[in-house]
Every structure is written in structure tokens, then in C-alpha cells.
Design a protein that fits this description.
By secondary structure, the chain is α+β, with helices and mostly antiparallel strands. The chain is built from 11 helices and 12 strands.
């Protein structure tokens, strides 16, 4: 049956814009409708999915099939929490789900299945918490930096005046040390404060940026490092500051190369995600860029800290590269997450693909 002929045909456009995955079935458990959130959850397009029986759509979801049949018989809504749903032989998802029967007669029975991805919900919560923590830490750092900059400027000025009064030119060596160290601390504070210019946004091809970064990193690392590509060529143009985006990807990729000590594999992967929430805003289309490496991994207690200023896994690192990357992404309405285990560390960048922050 075509979606326009069903009892809720007029509601399909509304369901299309929900962040919850919604699937509608007839009494034979044949899929009549799936919204974009459902496509994302099942990793299957509407064209592929609609018209399939549930046991074809999810061959291993036996328990779910029985629950839907019971709801058809009883005619009562059913909800189950924290359920592992088997999509296929290799993929499972953790969900809360609700099944609601509807229809005007026994011959016209339908089921509405709402699926909430627990992992995705937890990810959004973590992202919101991280954004809140980032804003707090940034304000603290800015306050400290400004407090340090004032006496630092006075110290440098005093050293310059002292230099003009010294009777022995050989003593200038000591004032030079004071001035150079003051300048070094000034540069460090400026980096801690992050970029002070607004992004100059234009439409760019993200894969051209990735190729540029790939060339730079391989030139630095030598032949022992491999950077693989896994690009989605259908991704549209990205509306960002090109130079700042190079800086974001370069900082993260250099971080991965350092973890690999120049020997191993980094992978750039791009995908398009639909109806994604970033920083509390809902976007119809977003870029998901993953930078993966097969290095030793990041300790679990460090994963949530590595984006803070002055936190570094390297003895020679400043601890500012990832903090700056995160700051630049926030200026673009994007976000970055990290997950890590030995041989599989992933930095996942999400950026809106719709210009002007088009959200629903």
C-alpha cells in the first residue's frame, strides 16, 4: 500500500522531521514507511527498505517480530527499554522501542514502531556535556591568560629599559633572555586563547582539504606512514573557512602520526549523515569525517581530557593542537569526538552541510 493511502498518510511529512526512528508496518508486517532517522539507524535507504517484510528487513529480530504480532492481536501499545536489536549477522544496536497499533477497522490494521538509539542519545548527552565543560574551561583559561599577560608585558618593558641603562654591553645577554622568554610566554598565551578572527567561509571540497593535509603529513613523516582514503564522492560542498579546516585536520592527523611514531596507518573516511543534532541544533545533512589510526590507543581516563588546553600524550607536545581544533570546529557549528582502543583510535568530526545553519 502506498503511504498516501494509509491512515496516517498526512503525517508522513511530520514524521520525516523527527529525530526518533519511525517505521510503519501493515498487518502482514510489511514496511510501509521509514523516516530519515530510521534510514540512519538501519543503514538502509527508504527505497531499499519500503515494501520489505520485517523478517526480511531484520532477519535476526525474532523477538521483535513476536512482539509486533502480539500488539496486533491485543491492540495495545507496548514499550520495551534497553533492548539489543539484531539488524543482521554482524550488527546490533541498543534501543528503546514503542509499538503503537492504529487503524480504522480489523482489515485496516497498522503498527507504528518508534526506535530510540540509546548509543546516539548518550552521544548527544556527552557532546552537550563536553560543550558545556569546554565553555567553562575556555573562560577560565582566558581569565588566567589575561591576568598573566599584563605583568608579562610589564616585565618585558622593564627588561628593555634596563638594557639601555646597563654599563657593560656583555650584560645585555641576560636582558635578551628575559625578553625572549617573555615573548615565548606571550605566544603560548595567544595560542591558549585560540583564534581571534572570525571564519572566512566559502564553499570548498572537503576531499581537496584532506588531500592537502595528506601531502603535508606524509612529507613530514616519510615512507613508513600510510594514509588511506575512504571517501564518499557524493558529499556536497562544505561551507567553511578553508584555512581553518586545514588546521583542524592537520592538528588531529599530526597527533595521530605522533602516536604512531611515524610507522603505521591513518585512514581518512567521509560520509554524509542525515538529520543529525550538533551542539543542540538539528541539521538535515551533515558531514561525518573520521580520522582513524592503528596506534596503541589512548587510555580511557584520558579520552575525555585530551581536548583541554595543556593536556598532551606526548612528552614534546604543547597540549594545544586538539584544543585549537575543537575551538575552530565550534566556530563552524561542528563537533569532534574521540573513541579509542588499541589499534583503533577514531577522531570523528561532524559539520553541517547545509549553509546558514539550516536546522529543523
Amino acid at each position: 500500500m502506498h503511504r498516501s493511502e494509509t491512515a496516517l498518510g498526512l503525517l508522513w511529512p511530520i514524521l520525516d522531521n523527527l529525530s526518533t526512528a519511525v517505521l510503519a508496518f501493515d498487518k502482514e508486517l510489511r514496511l510501509l514507511f521509514i523516516n530519515p532517522a530510521g534510514e540512519n539507524l538501519l543503514a538502509m535507504s527508504r527505497k531499499q527498505a519500503e515494501g520489505l517484510l520485517l523478517n526480511t528487513l531484520m532477519p535476526q529480530a525474532t523477538a521483535l517480530t513476536e512482539k509486533l504480532k502480539d500488539v496486533l492481536k491485543q491492540g495495545h501499545m507496548f514499550t520495551e527499554y534497553q533492548t539489543t536489536l539484531f539488524i543482521n549477522a554482524t550488527r546490533t544496536i541498543a534501543v528503546d522501542y514503542t509499538v503503537t497499533p492504529f487503524g480504522q477497522s480489523a482489515d485496516e490494521q497498522y503498527l507504528l514502531l518508534e526506535l530510540t538509539d540509546i548509543d546516539r542519545h548518550a552521544q548527544i548527552t556527552r557532546e552537550e556535556h563536553r560543550l558545556s565543560q569546554y565553555e567553562i574551561s575556555r573562560e577560565i583559561v582566558r581569565g588566567l591568560a589575561h591576568e598573566i599577560k599584563n605583568p608579562l608585558g610589564g616585565l618585558r618593558g622593564a627588561a628593555q629599559l634596563l638594557e639601555t641603562e646597563l654599563p657593560d654591553p656583555a650584560l645585555k645577554e641576560y636582558t635578551d633572555v628575559i625578553i625572549s622568554e617573555a615573548d615565548r610566554l606571550q605566544n603560548l598565551l595567544n595560542r591558549m586563547l585560540g583564534p581571534n578572527t572570525l571564519p572566512h567561509k566559502e564553499d570548498i571540497n572537503i576531499h581537496q582539504v584532506l588531500e592537502h593535509v595528506r601531502t603535508l603529513v606524509l612529507a613530514e613523516a616519510g615512507d613508513s606512514l600510510i594514509i588511506k582514503r575512504d571517501y564518499d564522492p557524493s558529499i556536497p560542498m562544505l561551507h567553511v573557512d578553508a584555512d581553518q579546516m586545514v588546521q583542524v585536520i592537520l592538528n588531529i592527523t599530526r597527533n595521530a602520526a605522533q602516536a604512531l611514531e611515524g610507522k603505521g596507518t591513518i585512514t581518512f573516511a567521509t560520509r554524509a549523515d542525515r538529520y543529525i543534532t550538533i551542539g543542540g541544533k538539528r541539521h538535515k545533512l551533515a558531514l561525518r569525517l573520521e580520522i582513524r589510526d592503528d596506534g596503541p590507543g589512548i587510555p580511557a581516563d584520558m579520552v575525555e581530557k585530551i581536548f583541554y588546553p595543556m593536556v598532551s600524550m606526548s612528552a614534546n607536545g604543547s597540549g594545544l593542537g586538539l584544543a585549537i581544533a575543537q575551538s575552530l570546529l565550534h566556530q563552524h557549528g561542528g563537533a569532534v569526538e574521540c573513541s579509542s582502543e588499541p589499534k583503533n583510535t577514531i577522531f570523528s568530526i561532524t559539520l553541517p552541510l547545509t549553509t546558514g545553519g539550516d536546522q529543523t
